[in-house]
Design a protein that fits this description.
Length: 446
Amino acid sequence: MKIFKKILIANRGEIALRVIRTCREMGIKTVAVYSTADKNSLHVKFADEAVCIGSPRSIDSYLNIPRIIAAAEITNADAIHPGYGFLAENAYFARICAANNLKFIGPTPDMISKMGDKITAKETMIAAGVPVVPGGDGLLESIKHATELAEKIGYPVMLKATAGGGGKGMRIVHEFSELEHHFNSAKIEAQASFNNDGIYMEKFIEEPRHIEIQVAGDQYGKVCHLSERDCSIQRRHQKLVEESPSPFMIPELREKMGEAAVKAASCINYEGVGTIEFLVDKHRNFFFMEMNTRIQVEHCVTEEVTSFDLVKEQIKIAMGEPISGKNYHPHLHAIECRINAEDPYNDFRPCPGRITVLNTPGGHGVRVDSHVYAGYEIPPYYDSMIGKLIAIAQTRTEAINTMYRALSEYVIEGVKTTIPFHLKLMQNEDFKKGNFTTKFLESFTF
Ligand code: MV4
């Protein structure tokens, strides 16, 4: 057991604040790092110390490893919390932290690499007995190989980049005549995006739900799950709404998916909190898709339905504390809406700028995780999320009502936001019935 006295947070925005808040409750000092664009950010004001690490562009600041390590050294930090995005799933960064005697709050570099390469991750899951999407044979070696495999799997098939995730380098192929074209364009896109043109093939699952299981593992090989989140409400691979439990869940499925997720994490002796993403088809067959080796944006809904502080769990696990090893089931219903500075009436175009007026909702069953304040200027360099609104109630219907009420109280002037979109969604009959898949937003108009 090593007690951390000081943690450096290698991130910005709401997640940097989220980590600082838990550190304060645990009596751990914090160091914020920031770019010149973020000098007036709340994470800088809330941390015990703050170090400017460069100019606005991420490569000059939040992705600049030498500067972050230097900031940790001059402030005498014991550990680095990477948040999500930026360096959170960068195995090289985790290795550099270790080499500089800084505990990376997350899994080991080997675990990050293994799950970062999607073919390796899939092979690992097959070996562990976790269901994966039918497909196979690892990397596609040639058009001929792809042609034969597609015949064997049966169209429609999907091409995916092994270095990918989140949709880049992904193609649906409906029939043989499209195969060569998509094979070539997926390779080119994968090369351009990831500097790795490796692609693989699987059966295309029609109209799936995206349901993920939160897991936690300690340094002694013990793993547990904290039930599921439904993240099917997405637009161009950007999640907009997440909830727990999933309205599609039934106890037998939770049992099976939970068991599979624990197996998935156990087979690599996973250390830290992580997420096993599954595709679930209409017959409730489920397939491993990816593992995220970080805290996620949507972790809050799990916190609210299980009463766990997942950031505290991350820190305790990193300090070498054992976990109980019990699984946790939701005892409430929580829904999260991502409030982005985007114009929902104009293709969700980002709208950075100054927030002139702000009224944050509150009251029973409402949580807001946000780093903004009246007068704050949203910089154009980073993602457009300005906060997360979480509604918690005993039932899904009540959570939707609470969310609608809270969205109605939320006033943000000066920039366009996704609030009008969420207000409409909360009134949609199919959404209210829990009747949606990952294709839902393709036909949602408001
Ligand atoms: C799929 C799929 C259907 N079949 N794989 C999207 C992001 C990447 N993580 C994997 N994705 C998908 N993989 C097979 N074999 C459909 C998707 C997909 C999707 C998945 C989750 C949430 C939203 C999605 C939107 C479009 C496509």
